[in-house]
């Protein structure tokens, strides 16, 4: 459904990603692991088109999207929950959700019920400003905003970073629910190995902008963790 082939990408003169190849199938939760600064966020931005690939390809839904704009990728069904959430602080919760619809212009007329049902706390906060929400509430909003466009592939960049445990559990439940529905594939960047082991089907590990290990989640050995993830 989503595949990245031999991708090279970076900022200005510096090349960050080299020869990255991965794939995410429907209903699959694939996690992307690696230490700080190895290029995980850069990879998600490149998949979304916020950063242009220098070499290689991004394929989605049977066609190549390597040269497509981010808006076009969103419209085709790639959803993105950025690291740090990027909620519009001056806009209301509801207006933030509408921006998710805007991303998929023409596809849906209103915020779909299934996006809201997953985060039942949101409707009671519709009129509040995004900036007044807690970090965990903002993360729920960012997640629901991405679901508003009914994505078929969802890119999640550290959705549990700096969030209280009860909301971490809720987010894990939502990811499991998406997996159970079997339609949407998830590419999850996550630091917590417990979280990953509880939700992912497969993993990739990055180091210095390349994939150095991959496999089924049961193959994520202590050896791999020591070598590439913990210090
Ligand atoms: N806007 C930017 N301009 C220039 N270099 C950048 C930019 N954003 C990130 N980098 C560099 O690219 C490299 C990869 O960064 P990236 O944010 O993709 O890592 P990451 O794996 O997501 O890290 P973290 O776990 O801390 O989120 C780092 O060396 C970083 O300094
Ligand atoms: Mg990052």
Automatic annotation (TrEMBL):
Family: Belongs to the ABC transporter superfamily.
Gene3D superfamilies reported for this sequence: P-loop containing nucleotide triphosphate hydrolases
Keywords from the UniProt entry: Amino-acid transport, ATP-binding, Nucleotide-binding, Transport
SMART domains attached to this UniProt entry: AAA (SM00382)
Domain ABC transporter, residue spans: 2-231
Gene Ontology MF terms in the entry: ATP binding
Pfam families: ABC_tran
Entry keyword annotation includes Ribonucleoprotein: no
Protein name: Urea ABC transporter ATP-binding subunit UrtE
């Amino acid at each position: 459904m989503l595949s990245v082939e031999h991708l090279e990408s970076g900022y200005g003169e510096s090349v960050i990603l080299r020869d990255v190849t991965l794939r995410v199938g429907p209903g699959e939760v694939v996690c992307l692991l690696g230490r700080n600064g190895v290029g995980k966020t850069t990879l998600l931005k490149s998949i979304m088109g916020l950063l242009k690939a220098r070499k290689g390809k991004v394929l989605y839904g049977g066609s190549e999207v390597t040269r497509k704009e981010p808006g076009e990728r969103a419209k085709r069904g790639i959803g993105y929950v950025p690291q740090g959430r990027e909620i519009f602080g001056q806009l209301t919760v509801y207006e933030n959700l509408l921006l998710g619809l805007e991303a998929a212009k023409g596809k849906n007329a209103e915020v779909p019920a299934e996006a809201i049902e997953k985060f039942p706390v949101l409707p009671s906060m519709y009129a509040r400003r995004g900036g007044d929400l807690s970090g965990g509430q903002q993360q729920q909003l960012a997640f629901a905003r991405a679901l508003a466009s009914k994505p078929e592939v969802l890119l999640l960049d550290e959705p549990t970073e700096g969030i209280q445990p009860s909301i971490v559990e809720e987010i894990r439940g939502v990811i499991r629910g998406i997996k159970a529905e079997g339609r949407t594939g998830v590419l999850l960047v996550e630091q917590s190995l417990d979280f990953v082991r509880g939700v992912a089907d497969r993993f990739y590990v990055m180091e210095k902008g390349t994939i150095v290990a991959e496999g089924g989640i049961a193959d994520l050995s202590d050896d791999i963790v020591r070598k590439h993830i913990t210090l």
